[in-house]
Write a sequence for this structure.
């Protein structure tokens, strides 16, 4: 009886602690609403009510050069309640003037994904007067070192600094990866950091690698002169066929403390994008372009009713971001749960390679030898010019019977009643009944609060999702007015995909149309995506007309309105 009472009291305390737990909150702010190109400012993300799983992802920070980062944590204890706030700070400088940048942070806390508020920063040419003006190092704004240490304090000469742009291939298929590289040759010393500014591209999906994979440095000789070479690369994926001009990239730097910052631009490039062939195209084409393989692994033995982990890895070279969940076999004899995915990508000057691994939790429902059938996926191989379907080998699992229930303990002799009833109050049946009622009430309240928090999170996601969709639709309207079908359908597709990604907390580029169709209220959205894909891969001699584009735009607006309900 005392064990039961102890368990009951523990459950009461646990339930009360769970209800007292704070809902995670994510906030972002910048120290000023304006920033000039000659100024630096701090962007701060604070996370309270839970421990973040990794650093936050900040939408819009790609418009800034990151000069430094730091992180800290503040823990406070008040009335036996422990609370902590994790803070991430970024010192940044804008890359381009005349922009209104919407900053928003996304982070996983306690297994759930959360979005912050939106903070707008306007970038101006110079002298915004709101952020900190960048000063040269030293005491009292005087150089700490003589200018002779930075190119002798002389003005830059012709040939001191050269910026070239190149692409890995000049002729590709729609969706095929293109490595865009800015090569900066330095023949003199620099005073300030190099700020690479990739070109603003339309009609591409762009992937920016992590810093350790984005930059490389080496010595190089050009036209007989020795240089220090620094390269910056990004990955481009053309969305529509045709001839595409890639505008110049740029690099910004300060040669010495006596000279203002300098911006130099690269050459312009031309890319020929071929349409994917219709001949041999699978009806359930995944959208992958590259060379891929698939492998499934699971333990050779398991027990009935006990979970096991099945891993399915898709490995390849190409547009890795677009790897969807493979087509699954029936998995007869197993109870199946939705998989989690993990990426291991490496980006080099030769392109992207790596794998996306899907982890399934399976629970065998019967004994004997069970076979997990092959998982499959298809892709277009640009090396052969053909569509290919690849499958994993079947996996066999020997399932044994689950553990037997333990034998009941021998019953103790019946207790002899005492002469007087001196039972403590906490052992009376009435006390236990009241305690159980309190536990049930607390559990019901917990379910209610969890549901309310889920509704709040859904509402929190909807607003920014709608705002981004409206911005994309506005760009699509501009492309319609300019008579640019390629850019129009690219923006329209991204408007739908980004809205669905934020509305349903999915990965925008890794979900197939069949996967999206399972979500409530997405029928019109899936139809718009199919229209966009058909238009993008249409032959160049039969482009969509303006009326078709207007209809597609109206359908996209209606699709988003349907998902808002």
């Amino acid at each position: 009886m005392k064990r039961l009472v102890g368990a009951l009291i523990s459950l009461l305390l646990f339930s009360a602690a769970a209800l007292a737990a704070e809902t995670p909150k994510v906030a972002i702010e910048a120290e000023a609403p304006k920033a000039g190109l000659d100024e630096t400012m701090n962007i701060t993300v604070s996370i309270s009510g839970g421990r973040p799983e990794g650093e936050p992802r900040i939408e819009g920070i790609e418009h800034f050069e990151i000069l430094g980062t730091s992180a800290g944590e503040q823990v406070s204890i008040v009335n036996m309640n422990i609370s902590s706030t994790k803070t991430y700070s970024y010192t940044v400088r804008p890359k381009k003037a005349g922009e209104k940048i919407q900053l928003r942070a996304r982070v996983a806390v306690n297994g759930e994904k959360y979005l912050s508020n939106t903070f707008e920063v306007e970038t101006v040419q110079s002298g915004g007067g709101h952020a900190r003006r960048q000063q040269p190092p030293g005491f009292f704004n005087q150089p700490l070192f003589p200018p002779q240490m930075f190119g002798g304090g002389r003005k830059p000469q012709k040939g001191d600094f050269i910026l070239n742009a190149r692409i890995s291939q000049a002729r590709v298929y729609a969706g095929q990866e293109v490595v865009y590289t800015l090569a900066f040759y330095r023949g003199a010393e620099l005073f300030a950091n190099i700020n690479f500014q990739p070109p603003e591209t339309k009609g591409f999906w762009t992937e920016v690698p992590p810093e350790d994979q984005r930059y490389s440095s080496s010595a190089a000789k050009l036209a007989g002169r020795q240089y220090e070479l620094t390269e910056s690369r990004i990955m481009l994926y053309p969305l529509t066929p045709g001839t595409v001009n890639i505008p110049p990239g740029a690099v910004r730097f300060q040669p010495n403390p006596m000279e203002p910052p300098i911006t130099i631009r690269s050459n312009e490039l031309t890319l020929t994008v071929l349409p994917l062939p219709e001949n041999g195209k699978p009806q359930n084409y995944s959208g992958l372009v590259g060379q891929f393989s698939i492998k499934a692994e699971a333990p050779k033995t398991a027990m009935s009713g006990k979970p096991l982990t099945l891993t399915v890895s898709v490995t390849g070279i190409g547009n890795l971001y677009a790897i969807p969940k493979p087509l699954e076999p029936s998995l007869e004899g197993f109870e199946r749960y939705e998989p989690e995915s993990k990426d291991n990508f490496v980006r080099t000057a030769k392109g992207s390679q790596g794998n996306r691994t899907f982890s399934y939790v399976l629970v065998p429902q019967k004994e004997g030898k069970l076979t997990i059938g092959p998982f499959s996926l298809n892709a277009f191989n640009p090396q052969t010019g053909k569509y290919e379907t690849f499958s994993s080998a079947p996996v066999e699992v020997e399932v044994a019977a689950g553990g037997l229930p333990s034998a009941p303990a021998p019953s103790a002799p019946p207790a002899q009643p005492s002469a007087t009833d001196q039972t403590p109050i906490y052992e009376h049946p009435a006390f236990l009944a009241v305690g159980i009622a309190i536990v049930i009430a607390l559990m019901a309240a917990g379910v209610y609060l969890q549901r309310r928090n889920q509704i709040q999170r859904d509402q929190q996601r909807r607003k920014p999702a709608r705002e981004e969709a409206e911005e994309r639709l506005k760009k699509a309207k501009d492309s319609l007015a300019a008579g640019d079908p390629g850019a129009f359908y690219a923006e329209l597709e991204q408007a739908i995909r980004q809205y669905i990604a934020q509305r349903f907390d999915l990965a925008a580029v890794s979900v197939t149309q069949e996967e999206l169709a399972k979500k409530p209220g997405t029928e019109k959205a899936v139809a718009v995506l199919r229209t966009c894909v058909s238009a993008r891969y249409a032959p160049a001699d039969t482009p969509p007309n303006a009326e078709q584009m207007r209809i597609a735009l109206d359908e996209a607006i209606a699709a988003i309105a349907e998902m808002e309900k």
